[in-house]
Amino acid sequence: MTITGSERTFKERLTHRPMEQGVKVLWFLCAISSIIAIFCILGFLLYDAIPAFMEIGLIPFLTGDRWDPTSVIPKFGTVPLIVGTLLVTFGAMVFAVPLGLASAIFISELASPRLRQTLKPAIELLAGIPSVLYGFFGLVILVRLIQDWAHVSSGESVLAGSILLGIMALPTIISVSEDALSSIPRFLKEGSLALGATHWQTIARVLLPAALPGITAAIILGIGRAVGETMAVIMVTGNAGIIPDPIWNIFSPVRTLTGTLGIEMGEVAVGSLHYHALFGVAVLLLIISLIVNLLSLEVMKWLHRTQTGGKNGHKSLLQSIPVDLTFITPYLSWIVIIGCLLLLTLVGLWEGAVAVLVILAINALVCRFCKKQQIQQIWFSGIALVMVLVVAILIFILYDIFSHGLPYVSLEFITQPPTNLGRGGGIFPAIVGTFYLILGSIALAFPLGIGAAIYLVEYTKENTLTKIIRTATDLLNGTPSIVFGLFGFTFLVIFLGFGISLIAGIVTLALMVLPTVIRTTEEALRSVPDSLREGSYALGATKWQTVRRVVLPPAMPGIITGAILAIGRAAGETAPIMFTAVVFMQKRLPESLLDPVMALPYHLFVLATTVPGARNNQYATAVVLLVLVIAIYGVAIVIRNHFDRKVRW
After folding, report:
1. Domain 409-649: which topology?
2. 249: left (phi over 0), alpha (psi -120 to 50) or beta
3. What is the DSSP letter of 418?
4. Least crowded by CB within 10 Å, which of 298, 309, 390, 615?
5. Within 10 A of 532 (CB to CB), how many other CB atoms are there?
6. Which parts of the chain span the membrane according to its record (predicted)?
7. Eight-class DSSP state of 21
8. Residue 559 contacts residue 521 (beta carbons within 8 Å)
9. Half-sphere exposure of 611 (CA within 13 A, CB side)
10. Among candidates 154, 126, 127, 125, which has minimal Cα distance to 142?
11. Is the dihedral of CA 317, 288, 486, 622 positive or negative?
């Protein structure tokens, strides 16, 4: 008896049914990993923080104006830490938002295609520089410049932290804002130009309002980067737990929430009141980060509804307002410039007020007496100068590191262990330890992230569970890196008994980079046309066969992009591993997963902050770390381009 093709397909589906169900369950378990991780982090932090809340009192802990755990009567008031965090974050946004938005406008609207192809990788390179390198640059260059310029006793201050965090937030704000501007339909711009508007009027009154959701997202992401940064602020803010007097004294040293955790956790006695109070600070930091992320999600949804008109055909909020509010947009940059002037004011508020009045007067005169083309030329010149400034910052950082560090990078430096507290010898164990941490974390996060994305895109429809999973992923992505380090310390190092070990660092880094892999893989899978899936099903393929043979190959470039971002972040992070995996000096390589390791970011941090007379090896270590990160990005980009060409052919 012969078997027809339809009967064979039916029997094959019956045969594959158990495997299909097993694969679906496996991907579901990967998908809920984000939910499990965020609840585990919050739960373990609360478990260690509750004793402090009970003994100190929640209200005194949140409202106390002094943080001094080492005094005769310990003080655990977090107001100075909260104020320091807010001041540095606000200053960073005042610096980064106007520069980032102007740079995004230049790349999207003014740069030629060839220049755009050059600038975008440069911005990506700025994003790939590890935070400890920014901190090292700020400590040896920026702090000294502020000290000489302002004639103050120390340049470690609110201003130094604000400028440095602003530089670190620039790539995020530029990239996301540029994507938002580039995604606006072309007919809006052409319609505005056809009605007689100049290019600048089109940008200010049409493109910027249309790109407002993306620009808002860029600013919120920049705020998240500034709030959660640890190593850079430790190195440049002075770490004094005081409230500046007056509050606008930008040359006052401050201490942030993340800086407090990074400085004190390594020296505190486990189980002491000070120990539990630090976990209380971590809970406070995590709650602030969760609130910022939840608010950003709600703001994005609201902005999307207002611009699309909402559901059921109702008018959007902007459409329902009879007054044209777009006149505000051209003056938005002036508002930010005023903020910059206030931040850079050397003495009090009077000079700032005078500067504001002068700027407003100049703006009024220009608008009153200059022609549209002249106004456009003024704005475009300013935007171009800002772009030059951003590129100059990148070039200056790279030049300073390479010019001072390259002469001391040798074969012996790369292949020998350190001696004399890092002043001599080399960094070979740190290089190997960094590779171990990167490979281990990616080996753990990559399959989990891809599996979660496959389940969300291919195996389920949009429902309450998927919304919870995506929200958990977003919250995990916005969790400060130091919080991951504390979770790894309390859960992996102490609770599970791993100790300071390679495996503890690997798991901690994997949890940190997991959201990046999930979201980028999701976008890559969604970019595959549904017609390919439908054609595969029509030929009798099962769900898993379709995913494996039809969907994954064309999505591979996007998946590789996720790996690029994850690898770059894992290579340059210090805070998640400083309490879980690394030691400063170790001449031998780890022999098992339970051994501690050296790592380049932590080695550079200790050399720069606690070892005097090690300037040559500081710069040489910075060069090696920077070259490593650039090489990782370069190899990954080559692989991604290979897949792009393969898919096109």
Report:
1. MetI-like fold (1.10.3720)
2. beta
3. E
4. 298
5. 14
6. 25-47, 81-111, 123-146, 158-181, 202-223, 275-295, 325-347, 353-371, 378-399, 427-457, 478-511, 559-585, 620-639
7. H
8. yes
9. 21
10. 154
11. positive
Residue 25 tokens, joined: 């369950």
What pLDDT shows up at residue 130? 84
Structure tokens at 352: 């700032």
Q: What is the dihedral of CA 167, 173, 175, 179, to 10 degrees?
A: -170
Q: How far apart are CA 443 and CA 437, in angstroms?
A: 10
DSSP per residue, 125-190: HHHHS-HHHHHHHIIIIIHHHHHHHHT-S---SHHHHHHHHHHHHHHHHHHHHHHHHHTS-HHHHH
What residues contact residue 331 under an 8 Å CB cut-off, 6+ apart? 363
Q: How many residues does the chain have?
A: 649
- Residue 561's identity, in one-letter code, is T
Omega of the bond prior to 113 within 30 degrees of 0, cis? Answer: no
CA 41 to chain centre: 19
Residues of the chain with CATH 1.10.3720.10: 79-272+324-402, 409-649
Residues of the chain short of pLDDT 50, as ranges, are 1-11, 14-15, 310-336, 338, 342-349, 649
Q: What is the pLDDT of residue 112?
A: 84
CA contacts within 13 A on the Cβ side of 579:
26
Residue 407 CA to chain centroid, in angstroms?
Answer: 32
Give the DSSP H/E element, type plus range, for residue 281.
helix 273-308
- Cβ–Cβ under 8 Å, residues 199 and 278: no
Cα–Cα distance measured from residue 434 to residue 431, given in angstroms and rounded to the nearest whole number: 5
Long-range contacts of 409-413 (CB under 8 A, 24+ apart): 409/620, 409/623, 409/624, 413/617, 413/620, 413/624
Closest CA to 34 of 487, 445, 581, 317: 445
pLDDT of residue 508: 92
Which of 146-169 are b and which e, b meaning 16 or more Cβ less than 10 Å from the residue's Cβ? bbeeeeeeebbbbbbbbbbbbbbb
Please, are residues 253 and 239 in contact by the beta-carbon 8 Å criterion?
Answer: yes
Q: What are phi and psi of 149, to 5 degrees?
A: -70, -45
- CA distance linking residue 364 with residue 265, whole number of Å: 53
Q: How far is CA 267 from the centre of its chain?
A: 27
Work out the end-to-end distance of the chain between its first and last CA atoms, rounded to an integer number of angstroms.
43
DSSP string, 453-473: HHIIIII--SSHHHHHHHHHH
Strand, helix or coil for residue 386:
helix
Measure CA 247 to chain center.
28
| Bridge-based pairing state of the strands 67-68 and 75-76 | antiparallel
Answer for the pair 213, 303: CB distance below 8 angstroms, yes or no.
yes
- Pairing outcome for strands 424-425 and 418-419: antiparallel
**Cα–Cα distances in angstroms (integers) from residue 185 to residues 81, 180, 303, 524, in the given order:** 45, 11, 17, 22
Full-model pTM: 0.80
Q: Which two tokens stand for residue 573?
A: 């992070």
Residue 132, C-beta contacts closer than 8 angstroms, at least 6 positions apart: 231, 232, 572, 574, 601, 602, 604, 605, 625
